[in-house]
Design brief:
The protein has 84 residues and is mainly α. Helix content is 56%, strand content 0%. It is built from 3 helices and no strands. The chain is flat and about 50 Å long.
């Protein structure tokens, strides 16, 4: 296998992985959040190396505040009050 063909395979593999991650995050946000939490929790425990804990904090999803005003997805902008 020559270098050009290998480079094509690498570029295609990266494109497929990025595309799959985008679709998963867009279509299954709760499952992606649970997976990120499951991956991050073992990494941020006491006794781990500092770089491992930083990696765990980077993987962990941002904290969300479920105030219940719009369903708790936190992806919408400011909400307007309903007018009757």
């Amino acid at each position: 296998m020559d270098a050009g063909l290998l480079a094509q395979y690498v570029v295609i593999a990266v494109a497929v992985l990025v595309s799959a991650a985008f679709v998963a995050k867009r279509q299954f946000p709760n499952a992606v959040r649970r997976a990120r939490v499951a991956l991050a929790i073992p990494l941020v425990r006491e006794g781990k190396a500092a770089w491992v804990r930083r990696l765990g904090r980077w993987i962990a999803p941002p904290a969300s505040l479920n105030d219940g005003s719009c369903g708790g997805c936190n992806s919408c902008g400011p909400t307007e009050p309903r007018r009757h």
